[in-house]
Amino acid sequence: MREPPPLGLELADGRRASLLLGDVSTVLSVDDLLVSSWDLSGRPYALVRASGTYRRGLDGRLLLKREATAEGPRVRRRLTAAEGAAVVEGARREARMALASLTAGDATPDTGEARRRLCGIVAMDAGALARDVARFLAASGPVGILPPDQYLSLVVRVTEGCSWNACGFCTLYRDVPFRFKPEAELRLHIEALREYFGASLALRRSAFLGDANALCLDDERLLPLLRVVAAAFPGAPLHSFVDAWTGRRRSAAAWRECRSLGLRRVYVGLETGDPGLHAWLGKPGTPADAVELCASLHDAGVALGVIVLLGAGGERFAEAHVSRTAALLSELRLRGNDLLYFSEYVPEAGREYPLPPDEAADLRPLAADRCAEARAAILAAFRPADPARPPRSASYDLREFVY
After folding, report:
1. N or C: which terminus of the chain carries fewer CB neighbours within 10 A?
2. Whole-structure pTM value
3. 122 in helix, strand or coil?
4. Phi, psi dihedral angles at 121 (to 5 degrees)
5. pLDDT in tens, 206-232
6. What pLDDT score does 353 carry?
7. 386: which residues sit within 8 A by CB, 6+ positions away?
8. What is the distance between the alpha carbons of residues 47 and 34, in angstroms, rounded to a whole number?
């Protein structure tokens, strides 16, 4: 369906604005400089200001993103509550002015819909947004991490926590006991998500099966849960994480059944092709497990998202990590519809892997420039299944995660 053209407006302070009433969102642009995007329930989720681009999560937190310029370095920073409230209020103030401009003009079907949407946006003041965050957490619970292409998915927490939860570089689920939801509980969870999102569910074009390793469940448990999700969201492509050690135990036939229920992409935290670094990181199994898993997924018609970690293990593992990771990625026979993510290990509060005080300096995480060199070297040595259609490669920066 073609979206209607933007409505042109003149704000009370003389600035020009345009309002786009999209099928899944409402976008207000002021002087082509300030752009605010809201979902169909009136929640702001992307705001472009002079100071940078802000992404707001359903948990109420805002992330500031700004690329490096002559005036300053690249920025990825989570705002304090007060800072975030000021940014959101500035966008809401522009929406209020746009609503006043519409109210002063002649009524048409388009302006009637525009007024309805802007009224919903303006009603989302600080108190309403705080109540909305509480409703989200009650319906969903916290969302730990997603692949970058799934930040606007609908997260259905088929499981909670991580079945392994012992990798030395990740503490995201340390305090979340692993469990799966029985069918009855999953249905209630989906009902709560539907009630929370309401019309804004239109913005969520796919469903992600959370949490960290939902596809680790055996067939007798997993397939009935997949059927519940598929029935609740017919036609929605399904995505999820799985670790190679667990995932390789599922047969290609079982993966084909998962695909028949809507599974379209599986994300595998390979991290490295070097067995030594793999063991030092605390990963289960061996890197070679990924070869069997990826072959089964390809045979079933399920695309891959393979994640490589950069910088962990320091200089001690750097050379072997590059050469063996490139070799293993080549064995995976990655294709044009697969994704290859590179995730730089960045120590930060709550996510540092433990190093004893007397640990050798050559195990310290690599600096950003060395990570970039490793990424370039891996890509240079990697051989895709079809050189004319290589997998897309992209960065996977945990500092940019917002849901």
Report:
1. N
2. 0.93
3. helix
4. -65, -45
5. 999 999 999 999 999 999 999 999 999
6. 52
7. 335, 336
8. 8
The DSSP bridge partners found for residue 160 are: 179
d(CA 339, CA 303): 8
Q: Which residue has 């509480």 as its token pair?
A: 134
Residue from 292, 280, 281 nearest 244 by CA = 292
Q: 183 Cβ partners below 8 Å, 6+ apart? A: 224, 225, 228
State the pLDDT at residue 358. Answer: 57
What is the DSSP-derived secondary structure letter of residue 363? Answer: G
Q: Are 35 and 49 in contact (CB under 8 A)?
A: no
DSSP 201-215: GGG--SEEEESS-GG
Q: How many CA atoms lie within 13 A of 198 on its CB side?
A: 10
Distances (CA, A) of 363 to 29, 312, 314: 48, 8, 4
Tokens of 147: 């692949």
Cα torsion for 156, 159, 165, 170, to the nearest 10°?
10
- Amino acid letter, 194: R
- Cα–Cα dist 291/247, whole Å: 11
Domain with CATH 3.20.20.70 in the chain: 140-400
Tokens matching residue 369: 């420039």
Pairwise CA distance, residues 373 & 177, whole Å:
38
Helical segments of 105-234, H only: 109-123, 126-139, 183-197, 219-232
Q: How many CA atoms lie within 13 A of 52 on its CB side?
A: 20
Residue in 141, 144, 140, 240 with CA at minimum distance from that of residue 191: 140
What is residue 354's DSSP assignment? P
Q: Is the domain covering 140-400 a CATH 3.30.390.50 domain?
A: no
* Helix orientation angle between 252-260 and 219-232, rounded to the nearest 10 degrees: 20
Q: How far is it, in rounded angstroms, from Cα 271 to Cα 158?
A: 24
Q: Which residue numbers in the chain have pLDDT < 50?
A: 349-351
- pLDDT reported for residue 359: 64
The C-alpha atoms of residue 344 and residue 341 are separated, in whole angstroms, by: 10
